[in-house]
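Sequence design from tokenized structure. All designs in this work follow the same two-part layout: the structure record, then the generated sequence. An example of the structure record is given first.
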């Protein structure tokens, strides 16, 4: 899912339109300075990212099309716009939020040219828009016709990162060892109630009171036997159960009038630790209306899964199940792509001075290493990404069991941290096998209903006691592939086979209750969120895996 590796393997800058030079009569208009686009009619047309599209075809009909992408400071991009119908031009504005319409770069195509290629380095972090139009549009006229856009990010394409050890060293130098140790103690007291787990983590973090913080700091560490208790302890702000959605109707063909959304953000961890924050980096490559529509669609899918009377409507047609809805989308020209992807769990969610902190929660698997000690691994996360694209709906959703809202479909609204990875083990495409996609996501709906009802009277809607994200992903994986490649699985051991989900669970390992170490090592390898072990950014784990 990462942008930079994709660019290494995919030549995306070939111009699609190789027709003769266009003959737009208004090409005679000249634009010598940055255009004023404050009153330009702009159509938000999607995202230019690795998990959306890096190459798009569109039609202009008198309005400029806007495609969004992220900049992370000194980000270098290259854009090619081509058309056989007019002389193309492009403008980049931003950063967003706050500076829509502020032109940071532009290029007016050479008169009579069928394509325009442009490189720019964007100093400030934030989302930006590539505004695609014509020379005529920049001069105040109108133009119509087909256009092709190729986009490549060539430098500084991910959130900047910093290692936890470097953060602790820098904070030591600013506030002193004693103040840092006291702040860590306050965090433990506020966030962890289990006495044994608190003591275990405190022992690992005791290093912050010493001057010799190692580069390969491994902390905090949760023992495998406490996985169910510990894995969800680091998202305290999300522990309040979200009520099941009320009965609702989602109109496929109607645009939203109210596009208000609540985006994630960051807040200080402790006033005594300047620059250290917790929370998300909101992703403004989703415009407000696009994100609001994706959130509404995820919400109605959750309602359909619970059979609570929710519906999706399209004109005089009404769909009351996930299967009916997805089949209608495919029939109306939508493409649904689903991938089963692996990550390192970003439970701590830390940032320091604007950088993403590489700080996973570690799990002690208790698998013995040849030269002593045990294998400790960054806690895995897994979910299914769902990409819907078409004439009525464009959305990126995820499906998994989490601290917030239990087992659910969720709209993706934050920037994924590069260190957490994102390796897709399997990909399913409605263009290749629509039935498989529909059945897979329908089973996800059935799993949501089963686990939401089972978790009603449990903390965090059963997270940790019924299962975790890897369990929900493994159930769908087994249904589609007949095997499981994820570790660890936290569901209780069961022999029940009352329905399809229980029958699958009975065949899956229950790792908290004990597991075969050799088989677990195979699943640990296939749970990695990077294609190669050497790409993993945590050296202690890489070294241990190579020993094994």
């Amino acid at each position: 899912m990462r942008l930079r590796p994709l660019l290494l393997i995919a030549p995306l800058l070939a111009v699609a339109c190789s027709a003769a030079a266009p003959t737009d009569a208004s090409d005679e208009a000249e634009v010598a300075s940055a255009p004023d686009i404050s009153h330009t009619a702009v159509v938000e047309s999607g995202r230019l990212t690795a998990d959306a599209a890096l190459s798009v075809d569109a039609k202009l009909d008198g309005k400029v099309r806007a495609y969004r992408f992220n900049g992370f400071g000194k980000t270098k991009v290259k854009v090619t716009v081509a058309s056989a119908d007019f002389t193309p031009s492009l403008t980049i504005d931003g950063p967003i939020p706050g500076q829509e319409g502020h032109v940071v770069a532009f290029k007016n195509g050479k008169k009579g040219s069928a394509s325009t290629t442009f490189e720019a380095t964007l100093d400030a972090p934030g989302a930006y828009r590539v505004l695609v139009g014509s020379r005529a549009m920049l001069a105040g006229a109108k133009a119509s016709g087909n256009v092709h856009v190729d986009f490549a990010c060539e430098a500084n394409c991910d959130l900047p990162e910093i290692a936890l050890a470097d953060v602790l060293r820098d904070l030591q130098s600013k506030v002193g060892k004693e103040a840092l140790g006291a702040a860590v103690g306050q965090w433990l007291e506020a966030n962890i109630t289990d006495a044994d787990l608190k003591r275990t983590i405190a022992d690992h973090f005791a290093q912050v009171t010493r001057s010799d913080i190692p580069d390969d700091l491994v902390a905090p560490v949760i023992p495998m036997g406490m996985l169910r208790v510990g894995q969800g302890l680091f998202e305290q702000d999300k522990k309040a159960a979200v009520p099941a959605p009320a009965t609702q109707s989602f109109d496929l063909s109607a645009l939203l009038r109210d596009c208000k959304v609540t985006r994630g953000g960051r807040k200080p961890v402790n006033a005594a630790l300047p620059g250290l924050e917790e929370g998300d980096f909101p992703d403004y490559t989703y415009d407000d209306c696009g994100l609001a529509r994706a959130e509404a669609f995820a919400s109605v899918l959750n309602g359909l899964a619970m059979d609570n009377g929710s519906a999706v409507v399209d004109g005089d047609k009404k769909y009351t199940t996930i299967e009916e809805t997805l089949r209608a989308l495919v029939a109306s020209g939508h493409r649904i792509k689903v991938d089963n992807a692996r990550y390192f769990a970003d439970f701590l969610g830390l940032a320091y001075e604007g950088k993403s902190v590489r700080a996973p929660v570690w799990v002690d698997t208790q698998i013995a290493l040849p030269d002593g000690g045990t294998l400790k691994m960054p806690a895995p996360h897994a979910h299914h990404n769902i990409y819907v694209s078409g004439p009525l709906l464009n959305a990126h959703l995820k499906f998994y069991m989490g601290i917030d809202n239990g087992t659910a479909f969720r709209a993706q609204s934050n920037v994924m941290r590069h260190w957490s990875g994102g390796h897709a083990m399997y990909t399913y495409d409605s263009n290749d096998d629509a039935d498989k996609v529909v059945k897979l996501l329908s089973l996800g709906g059935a799993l949501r209903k089963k686990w939401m009802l089972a978790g009603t009277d449990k903390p965090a809607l059963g997270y940790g006691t019924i299962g975790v994200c890897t369990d929900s992903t493994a159930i769908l994986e087994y249904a589609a592939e007949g095997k499981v490649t994820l570790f660890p699985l936290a569901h209780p051991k069961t022999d029940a086979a009352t329905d399809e989900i229980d029958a699958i669970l009975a065949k899956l390992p229950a790792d908290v209750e004990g597991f075969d170490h050799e088989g677990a090592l195979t699943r640990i390898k296939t749970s990695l969120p990077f294609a190669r072990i050497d790409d993993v950014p945590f050296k202690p784990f890489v070294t241990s895996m190579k020993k094994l």
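Residues 1-32, 234-240 have pLDDT under 50 and may be disordered. We note this feature because it recurs in several other targets discussed in the main text.
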